[in-house]
Design brief:
Number of helices: 5
Helix content: over 70%
CATH class: Mainly Alpha
Number of domains: 1
Structural class: mainly alpha
Largest sheet: none
Shape: globular
CATH topology: Protein Yjbj, Chain: A
Oligomer: single chain
Radius of gyration: 12 Å
Distance between the termini: 18 Å
Order of helices and strands: HHHHH
């Protein structure tokens, strides 16, 4: 997802993020507000992942979300 798409779809995507990374609080997600790099940093902090691992997991979640959205159309 490009930056504008990520931020624009944040409200819909936020629930999927919280399902996958339950240690992220509503406050965390409100502060992140769709900024991808901040989300990656917070995932790293809470889950002890390397940046590359956090980016990979987020990219996989984004891909699944796009596939699911396309299937609903």
């Amino acid at each position: 997802m490009n930056r504008d798409t990520f931020e624009g779809n944040w409200k819909q995507f936020k629930g999927k993020v919280q399902e996958k990374w339950g240690k992220l609080t509503d406050d965390d997600l409100d502060v992140i507000a769709g900024r991808r790099e901040q989300l990656i940093g917070k995932i790293q902090e809470r889950y002890g992942l390397a940046k590359e691992a956090a980016e990979q997991e987020l990219s996989e979640l984004e891909a699944r979300s796009r596939t699911a959205a396309a299937a609903r159309r």
